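hi! just following up on the protien thing from before. the input was this:
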Amino acid sequence: MRRYGPAALLLLTGGAVLRITLFGDLYLRYVQPALRPYLIVSGAALMLLGLTTGLTTAAHHDGHGHGHGHGHGVGGPRVAWLLTLPALALLLFPPPALGSYSAGRDAAQRAAQGVGAFPALPAGNPVELTLGEFSSRAMYDSGRSLKGRTVRMTGFVTHGDDGTWYLTRLQVSCCAADAGTGKVEIRGTAADGPWPADTWLTVTGTWHPKGRLGTDAAWPPVLDATSAKQVKQPADPYEKR
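and the predicted 3d structure came back as:
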């Protein structure tokens, strides 16, 4: 069976890619939605290549007997079979989205942008914002567009060393490999948990000004919460940055 190793590996990998893209939203744990068509094409190509490799190997074997049985024969080196493990894991047990552990390892890095006026927020309260949108306005908006507005955001819980807790969201440009962290400190008895780490919440509240705009003292921004409701993890757990 070793001679069919390359074909099996291609089929497993292609099947895993198609499984997470065609039959659900699992691919959103790893990449942005815009990359889905490319993943589908890649998975299909791997499956086709695997079938072609298997048929070619079978034809070669039927035409030339059993071969020599060395460790580096038609099937390649035995160590190549180790590559089936990540493919099987993705096919059978897809890893979860990144969570509080990854957020805790990420440094407090903000986009390099200057202080300036932001567009007006939509009318009505509460205003639905991503954590990235809220953070940018809280830290850099000279027009103070968040003042007097009620906002609502969704993220997962992370904890600080001093008893504080944060609403957190991982932000990606392309895929989970380039994820950065956006977080908002939550204050107010209305949002008291205690909420375990990685609990997904929708939190409503008002901006609490902190520090001088555009400085490290303004990070992380603060929300005085009036309510916090536990929710399911969104199909797409990441924000686009």
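Helices lie at 5-22, 36-64, 84-92, 100-105, 131-140.
The two ends are 47 Å apart (CA to CA).
cheers
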